[in-house]
Amino acid sequence: MTQGAGQGPVVRTATLRDFRVPPYAQVPVQSQVPPHADVAQEHVAREQTAQEQTAQEHVMPQDQAPPARTQPSQQPPESAHPGNAVPEGEAPDGYTPTERDLPVINLGGPGDTVQVQVDPDEAPAPDGLGPLYVVGDVHGYLDELVAALGEQGLIDAEGNWAAGHARLWFLGDFTDRGPDGIGVIDLVMRLSAEAAAAGGYCKALMGNHELLLLGAKRFGDTPVNSGAGTATFQAAWLLNGGQKSDMDRLQEVHLQWMARLDAVIEEDEHLLMHSDTTAYLEYGSSIEDVNDNVHEILTRNDADECWDLFRKFTKRFAFRDEAGPEAVRELLGAYGGRRIVHGHSPIPYLLGEVGTEDGEDGERPVVEGPHVYADGLAIAMDGGVTMAGKLLVVQLPLPN
């Protein structure tokens, strides 16, 4: 979920807010991050009328916290934590009201890649891959992620991969809003190595918040043309729940990992993507083209084009209304698969059960599982953990 990506005229409904960077956030934010990076590519122009309107999201002031969540218990010692993590001690300066103390995974040192000890006698078995699982938006809620993975038997009590040949896909949005986005990324990186050693795999797709964090780090307060005036990645990142502790702990290994994530993939006739938008079609007519073009954009040096990519991947609700099934079929026709599985739009927000993505007036949405809609062609996986909903980890295909 992202607010403040500035696009089109404001449209208000009972469940939507302004999807733009407001005037108070358009002033360049002072940043210690030097602008750098890369990007630029030609896009095929597509129709954006209905999408530009339905994709509008609300703006939450930076000092407004989401509904109160259960306070975490005292952190256990390193060896006892299910994520094999190390407590950080006192909360650093800059924590926002949505943060709390959570452990992070040690990588062994600044810039290190994830290290996994593999028994040479435990070579991956030659037989086929196991069942397919998908994970919805995590947004820094490491404890909830560890619990959900454990409930599905994908990790053991120590937080190690326990699913053998199983396949696990994360649908993006690892950071922002919640307390420990870097801890989430570290865990996913470690599980990826452990799963590969066991003969399965753990992989991830790029969400709009990965693009937002990359942009904030690379471009800082460099002005970009948002479509609604001048904005900056830094301002948008802060507006959308960016956590100072995540930025402070962000290392080159995390940046490289995020920049290499694919945007869309097909597994077992399920088309997996982060956002419920047809904007992917603007980046290629095949899965390979989309992923190649996104990666090219992230290796060039154009802040405006990088912002445009972020803005388009922040659109939503393309599959929700009467035209939704046709939008799904257009994507399936281009990229394959029989069903789309996506995150990005929290299920309670998608259904209009709460007024905003963070909930209002103490509302606590009830999410039992994925939401199947658009004539059964789309599966929404964001259970709304940021609004005290549920972090979803499910096996595909869904039972009938």
On the 0 to 100 scale, the average pLDDT is 76
Strand content: 5-15%
Biggest beta sheet attributes: 5 strands, mixed
> Which residues form runs of ≥5 with pLDDT under 50?
6-126
- Determine the fraction of residues in helical runs and give it as a percent range: 25-40%
Provide the succession of SSEs: HEEEHEHEHEEHHHEEHHHEHEEE
Number of strands: 13
Quote the distance from N terminus to C terminus. Answer: 29 Å
How many helix segments? 11
User: Radius of gyration in whole Å, from Cα?
Assistant: 20 Å
Instruction: Trace the largest sheet across and list its strands.
Output: 8-9-10-12-11
Structural class of the helix and strand makeup? alpha/beta
Shape: globular
Model description:
The radius of gyration is 20 Å and the shape is globular. It has a 5-stranded mixed sheet with strand order 8-9-10-12-11. A 4-stranded mixed sheet has the order 5-4-3-13. α4 (208-219) crosses α5 and α4 packs antiparallel against α9. The chain has 11 helices and 13 strands. With 400 residues, it is α/β, with parallel strands linked by helices.
Task: Supply database-style keywords.
400 residues; alpha/beta; five-stranded mixed β-sheet; four-stranded mixed β-sheet; 11 helices; 13 strands; 26% helix; globular
Topology record:
Layout: H1 49-54, E1 85-86, E2 104-105, E3 132-135, H2 142-151, E4 167-170, H3 181-198, E5 201-204, H4 208-219, E6 223-225, E7 230-232, H5 233-239, H6 244-249, H7 252-259, E8 264-267, E9 270-273, H8 287-297, H9 303-313, H10 324-335, E10 339-342, H11 347-350, E11 371-373, E12 378-380, E13 393-396
Parallel strand pairs: 3-4, 4-5, 9-10, 10-12
Antiparallel strand pairs: 1-2, 3-13, 6-7, 8-9, 11-12
